[in-house]
Amino acid sequence: MPRSVNSVAKRARRKRVLKQAKGYFGRRKNVWTVAKNAVEKALTYAYRDRKVNKRNFRSLWIMRINAGARLHGMSYSQFMGKVKANNIELNRKVLADLAMNHPEAFGAVVNKIK
After folding, report:
1. How far apart are CA 77 and CA 88, in angstroms?
2. Cα 92 vs. chain centroid, distance in angstroms?
3. CA 47 to the chain's CA centroid
4. pTM attached to this predicted model
5. In this structure, are residues 72 and 78 in contact, taking their beta carbons and an 8 Å threshold?
6. Given a cut of 90, is residue 114 above it in pLDDT?
7. Which residues fall within 8 angstroms of residue 113, CB to CB, at 6 or more apart?
8. What is the average pLDDT across 11-40?
9. How many Cβ atoms from other residues are within 10 Å of residue 29's Cβ?
10. What DSSP designation does 72 have?
């Protein structure tokens, strides 16, 4: 029996990877073996950095809330402790936005919890 090779699926798989490698520099965009490794690594980084991105934003929000709270004579931990104790349902993202862009509204939150 002759050897059967599924060239259609093989070509489709390679085309899909080379399409993902579009925009890469040099042989990474058009040589199969190089492109396959480049795309694999890029997908690994993308998966990892979706988590890192969330971490970085939370850190940024904390810094902004801390800066806003210190203008009113409180530390970040004191501020967040009182926010939770007073059942204020604002998350860090919203509090950071208030501290950054609407200082008077943030001041109102601080006055409410003092």
Report:
1. 15
2. 15
3. 10
4. 0.80
5. no
6. no
7. 79, 82, 83, 85, 86, 88
8. 97
9. 15
10. T
Pick the CATH number of 10-113 from 3.20.20.210, 2.40.10.10, 1.10.1900.20, 3.40.50.300: 1.10.1900.20
Domain boundaries, the chain: 10-113
> In the numeric block, which tokens belong to residue 38?
């480049």
CB of 71 closer than 8 Å to CB of 98: no
Cα 21 to chain center, whole Å? 22
Q: Strand runs (DSSP E) across 56-108, as ranges?
A: none
| 2: DSSP letter | -
The predicted structure's pLDDT at residue 2: 86
Radius of gyration of the chain (CA): 25
Distance between first and last Cα of the chain = 85
24: exposed, middle or buried (Cβ count in 10 Å: 0-12, 13-18, 19+): middle
Q: Could you give the CA distance from residue 78 to residue 65 in angstroms, rounded to a whole number?
A: 11
Identify whether the C-beta of residue 90 lies closer than 8 Å to the C-beta of residue 110: no
Name the amino acid, one letter, at 71. Answer: L
